[in-house]
Amino acid sequence: MTDTRTNAGARDGGADAPPELWDPLVRLTHWGVASAVVANGLITEDGSAPHIWVGWAVFGLLALRFVWGFTGPREARFSTFPPRPIAALKHLSDLLRGTPKHYPSHNPAGSIMAYALWACLGLVVLTGLVMTDAQSPLSISEQKAAVAAGDWSVLVEGEESRDHEGVKEIAEETHELAANLVFVLAFLHIAGVALESRLLGRNLVMPMLTGRKKSKRDAGAT
Amino acid sequence: MNRPRPVVIAAIVILQAVATVFFVGDAVTDLLNAPSAPHSLLEAFVAVALILGVIFAGWQLRVTLERLRSQERALDTARGALADVISAQFDAWGLTPAERDVGAFALKGLDVGEIAELRGAAPGTVRAQLTRIYSKAGVTGRAQFAAWFVEDLLETGLAVAEIDRCGAATGQHERPQHRET
């Protein structure tokens, strides 16, 4: 491949019309976190072993997405969608007036939403770790199995652990608050996507499912 | 293409990352409880290996994505380049604007009826235009007309450097020489 050809491609619209809007890592972490939120918010029992396993998985997904935000392709990088609250408000008013601009990655409102969700999810994970003494889900599962088998010695709390009762209570309150906030934000996020899809007349969900802005056939026909 | 699809690589990266978080969490607990036990040291070693694995797989994913994108760009360029070649050749043949349209539709594989419908013309008119195009191009029919443009791609591959030559070609007079060589 010669440089001329790459440059020509960029000039011909290759740059502002990426073949893929969201790369597979962004898509899979997005749906992974979404299903984890549903699982831990609605299905698993609070504080149960599955709840903690799912929480740790979210930790992994968030960490990976965070690193990808610096090393991934352009649309996935934080530098492409810095948080700009004023631009976000402007985008919303533009949207209602029917004259929204198109952005190569998240629009400013979507970007604020992404950061807000990440912050809340991070807080939920962090407080969850505080509540469980950052014990790995494996050892928690082992402990629960031991208790179920009749060995209650693991339940005896050490001195250190009792000192942290106050901290843990705060963590628990914060955990619940942040988790509820995640649900509120997720609802707003879905409402925003639905509204923008409708007003812009383009499906915003498809790129997150398949990665493409439009089907291959349409792209080929232009 | 036999290369793994990016979505497969991404799924593996994610699986590795989540597994690493679980394992590292366990390794850290063990390391804090028994810093010098062989078990803890082994776990720490495996944890480092896992982290390196995630980094490597992530880097692979990045490279694969970049490669796919540049291929797609090259394909777009080739498409655009072919359109340029066709346009230049239509100029060289001296096609009228109407004939250019009909010629382009014919190259895209539309039949007379479809072209007539698209242009809001009678099929007879389209047929007459096609006949004039073939005579200007010095070809016997549609198959040869289409083959005229495909021939170059088959012979030389899609090299951008070649397009200047094709674009500069002034007419079919140069073609027979080219074909014989």
TrEMBL record, chain A:
Its main location: membrane. It comes from the Bacteria. It is found in: Cell membrane. The chain crosses the membrane at residues 52-71, 112-131, 177-195. One of its GO terms (biological process) is respiratory electron transport chain. Keywords: Cell membrane, Membrane, Transmembrane, Transmembrane helix. One of its GO terms (molecular function) is electron transfer activity. The keyword Transmembrane helix applies. InterPro entries: Cyt_b561_bac/Ni-Hgenase (IPR011577), Di-haem_cyt_TM (IPR016174), Hydrogenase_cytochrome (IPR051542). Residues 22-211 form the Cytochrome b561 bacterial/Ni-hydrogenase domain. GO terms for cellular component: plasma membrane. The keyword Cell membrane applies. It is a multi-pass membrane protein. This is Cytochrome b.
TrEMBL record, chain B:
The chain crosses the membrane at residues 7-24, 44-65. GO terms for biological process: regulation of DNA-templated transcription. One of its GO terms (molecular function) is DNA binding. SMART domains: HTH_LUXR. Signal peptide: none annotated. It comes from the Bacteria. Residues 92-149 form the HTH luxR-type domain. Keywords: Membrane, Transmembrane, Transmembrane helix. This is Regulatory protein, luxR family.
